[in-house]
Amino acid sequence: MKVRLKWVEAVSFLAQSESGHAVLMDGPPEGGGRNLGPRPMEMLLMGMTGCSTYDVIHILKKSRADVRDCVVEVDADRADVDPKVFTKIHLHFIVTGRALKADQVERAIKLSAEKYCSASIMLGKMAEITHDFEIVEAD
């Protein structure tokens, strides 16, 4: 996997993935940025969440669960001193579907966290990662 990152100005950077997608990262105005994009650490958290959610949806669909939507709310704490690594990350999954079973959703989240999501397994070496979920019945 390859990524290319180009410094744009001040604390703005344009990152391009091997698959050809680009994202602008920037800092806050008080740090010299113009707030034109997410911070690098936010990108790291979003990437981990995307990785985990991909797994959960894939596992649920593979088990023939009628999943219609999934939203994940993440709350993370960072160390107060440099390096300001993540110390705690909590993922709250809101899974919408028809007749979803709690044990299926719980199993999908656990498999992602412990076996499939490389990003969360890697971040879990440094941070305490916890999960919970709620199920919403689709109309």
UniProtKB/TrEMBL annotation:
Signal peptide: none annotated. This is OsmC family protein. Coiled coil: none annotated. It comes from Jeongeupia naejangsanensis. PANTHER family: PROTEIN YHFA. NCBIfam families: PRK10738.1 (NF008009).
